[in-house]
Amino acid sequence: MIKAGIKWMFLIIGTTIGAGYASGREIWQFFGHESGLAILLFAIFFMICCAVIMYVSYYHKSNQYLPVLKEIVGIRLTKFYDFMIFFYLFSVTVVMIAGSGATGQAFNFSKWWGIIIIVIVLILLFMKNINGLLSINLLIMPILIGGLLFILMKFINDQDLQLFSHWHEQRNWATVFPFTALNILPLIAVLGAVGDKVKTKGEIYIASIGSGLILGVITYIYNNSLIQIADEILLYEIPLFAILKDYPFEILIFMSVMLWFAILTTAASGVLGIVTRIQENFNQPFSLLVIVTLLLMVPLTTFGFSQLISVLYPLYGILNLYVLTRLLLFPLWLRKDRNHKLR
């Protein structure tokens, strides 16, 4: 049970810690000054949401997100949110593939080398359905989490920073709602695809509590580090590099590689959500659908999706507030409705 719970925990973290989160851009966009309470609430809300999503998918023994989505938002809104999730996964995965190309350019390679490499790795990951993704998450996530925490704690120690010096200033607490709402969208798709593989409720508790605690701690430490260099962040596309600027080049290379793996895990989660959703409609082997999906995405990496995402992310955050509310209040509605099919 513990081993399985940890496996799902790293799947959750791997889905959430994408390139935007790992680079610090997403954290700084939503949090910043006076956000300690918001981050604490995020950790709590995140645990509840993950537990509810996993419980519903576990009950339905689902292998794709649609049954879970119906349970959460209701039949009337299912089609709307189904389209929204699918388009979100598709567009974000395209951006991640393009991001891999940009990473290649940063090392003086053609962007197409970066794109080709991530496409090949994604195909290899899914040759055995989702087992490859689960395996690489178990390998990569501890290294990524450990690397981030090491750098952040070293920075805090070198700068002699106080983590709780401004705890009485919490005017930015409301940002917890759009931030949590944005991050639960891909989780519905990913966790909805593994419901038939969850064996016990204990796995759900381990995965949801563990992922919430880890993400809460990292987010709080990361945000406090970024606050100290707030004036310099505007000069960097990737805020993490503002933290790393005075450290050895080897550390910069290591964290750049870790950012690429964050891109990979986000892209893999997107592909998982997409392919499990369409598999029953096309009745084709999982690996073949992965290849076709990726081949359709590659030409789209030349378009300005990053600008589109900058508009869509806040919109998704707002639209998902309803989903967030449903998830947080789901235990109450479940208890109230005696005729509910999950009672």
Describe the structure.
By secondary structure, this protein is mostly helical. Helices cover 77% and strands 0% of the residues. It contains 16 helices and no strands. The longest helix is centred in the last third of the chain and has 34 residues, at 249-282. The chain is globular and about 55 Å long.
In short:
The chain has 343 residues and is mainly α. 77% of the residues lie in helices and 0% in strands.
Give the SSE map:
Layout: H1 2-16, H2 19-22, H3 25-30, H4 36-60, H5 66-73, H6 75-106, H7 111-125, H8 131-159, H9 176-191, H10 201-228, H11 230-233, H12 239-244, H13 249-282, H14 286-297, H15 305-319, H16 321-336
Helix pairs in contact: 1-8, 1-9, 1-10, 1-13, 4-5, 4-9, 4-10, 4-16, 5-6, 6-7, 6-13, 6-15, 7-13, 8-10, 8-13, 9-15, 9-16, 13-14
Q: Mean of residue pLDDT? A: 84
Number of alpha- plus pi-helical segments:
16
Radius of gyration: 19 Å
Which structural class do the helices and strands define?
Answer: mainly alpha
Low-confidence stretches: none
Q: How far apart are the termini?
A: 24 Å
- Helix content estimate: over 70%
Shape: globular
Counting DSSP E segments of at least 2 residues, the number of strands comes to 0
